[in-house]
Amino acid sequence: MADQDTGAPVAPAAPKPPWEEKPVPATPQDAREHPQVRELAEHVADAILEAVEFAGQITVTVSLERLVEACRACKDRLGYGYLVDLTAVDWKDRAEGRFDIVYWLHRHAGEQRLRLKVRVAEGAEAPTVTTVWKTANWMEREVFDMFGVYFAGHPNLERILTWEGFNGHPLRKDFPIEGIDTGAAIYPDVYPPGGGPVSGGEEGA
Amino acid sequence: MTERAPVHLSADSEEMEISFGPQHPATHGVLRVMVKIDGERIVETKPVIGYLHRGTEKIFERETYNGCIPHTDRMDYTAAATNNQGLVGAVEKMMGITIPPRAAYIRMMLAELQRIASHTIWLGTHALDIGAQSPFFYTFEEREKILDLYEEYCGARLTLNAMRVGGQPFDLPAGWTDRCRAFIDQLPAKIADWERLLTKNRIWKLRTVGIGVMSGADAIEWGLTGPPLRGSGVKWDVRKVFPYDHYEEMEFDIPIGTNGDTYDRYLVRMEEMRQSVRIVRQCLDRLPDGPVMAKVPKVIKPPKGEAYFSVEGPKGELGYYVVSDGTDKPYRLHVRPACFINLQALPELVRGHLIADLIAVIGTLDIVLGEIDR
Predict the structure, then answer these.
(1) I need a labelling partner for B359 at 20 to 30 A (CA). Which of A85, A181, B153, B212 fits?
(2) Residues spanned by CATH 1.10.645.10 within chain B?
(3) Interface test mutation site (partner A, options B49, B332, B333, B367, max chain A beta carbons within 10 A)
(4) ipTM score
């Protein structure tokens, strides 16, 4: 408090460090002219439906019919040899297809990443990319298990995290978070219908 | 999976299918492997997972972003700090938050100590599986010291919940840096002791050299990351390729192997512990002053969109894919579990080996079923 009255010249306010500023959230931008998208367009131009850049990451939406061709071009011609991740998102009421299947690719030359996306309608099949990257095998099984999306041509499309005979696909938005009545389905003589351990106690709901 | 009978014997061949796990101690949790063997030789293996599936990704969808952090602790429960780091990094990326340098340094220290702690578990259990009992006791002693440091920092030893979107919840307690420095100063001598027990040990080499070989090209094809990738000679580390926090300011080397076998993966992890010591020491030397929390909104609401953020966990690339619909809860939060994808290569790694080598390969992949099953 004492040095408030010393009359020393007040230094001009220094610019605030970035962690004291209000954060500026990422915004989506059209990325059709981005070099990574353009080189993909050289190979599969008409397959690209949309290209967006968000938070420094490129997302290219490709048509379902041309997906394997686009993946092949990415791996063989553009060098995306490492499939980092494959997952799905459920957009329950979307008109253009309920599920997004998301492929996240990496190439070691230049250390760049690219996200491919396809839209799959409920009940429709997506083509498998296990023929392109071996590592897609378990990832596609997980998407099948969790979302119920079928992958045509997959060598071994079985459930992976839940068990064979499990009813439903847990990561769908209409799957209840408290779980479904699996007790009664497996042990009908122990639990009354709707009264398994998952859905509210052994006494029955 | 549908076959329930554990053993199939047919009259005209020596082939037999046995169920290994899920309650076997050498499966590091609840891994079950259906092994088809011909005598002692492995013909085919099929990992069966999901015994620890808790629907973590479904739970994420009902939690707020900071509320998701304790759930990440429970995925790879031997490396909670790096799990936290990936999630908060993803949300910060979407929201455009820059965390204060002190917070970034604390994060790096926690993450590197976690890497050492995770590798000590790996070494202890891996050696125990193969028949070397003593390293287990020595490595767990050092791990306890790391857990003590964590306990002092955030109150928890395993499920740390030690990071928040925008920075760190607490500053370091008084005297923590001195105790941390004392710990890392004595650690290299301990690592040398462990190496003296194993590196030139004839039995150890017989059990690991040439076992579970994978070439670098195959490792990339199978999506391996972390020590299994580097053991195959691919010099690739998320900390160098996409530096997060302040790893770009740190000097450290990426150890790689040449043969891609179990022995090389062992050497890689041993060297990684030394490199982690180097990073922690640099963090302590240059630890900046200042706040540990950035100015963030009271309610964490990333903008509508999607982002992927990955960190180099002790097991490999741990990625978080966040899809936000603009509300305070993630619309979809997917984890790329390094162990899940590394385990997928198990049948490739053990084909043609003896059944005892299956134990060595499961150990060398350093899997944690909590992360595989989520």
Answers:
(1) A85
(2) 56-373
(3) B332
(4) 0.84
- Convert the pLDDT of each residue in B39-72 to its tens digit: 888 888 999 988 888 889 988 988 899 899 999 9
Q: Which chain B residues are Cβ-neighbours of A117 within 8 angstroms?
A: none
What dotted CATH number matches A26-158?
A: 3.30.460.80
A166 in contact with B, Cβ within 8 Å: no
- Confirm whether pTM is higher than 0.90: no
| Record: contact A158-B296, CB cut-off 8 A | no
Q: What is the pLDDT of residues A45-83, one digit of tens each?
A: 788 888 888 888 889 898 888 888 888 888 888 888 899
Disruptive mutation site among B164, B221, B224, B342 for chain A (greatest number of A CBs within 10 Å): B221
H helical segments located in A64-126: 67-72
DSSP annotation of A3: G
Q: B56-373 is classed in which CATH architecture?
A: Orthogonal Bundle (1.10)
pLDDT of A122-168, one tens digit each?
888 889 999 889 899 999 999 998 998 999 888 988 888 887 777 77
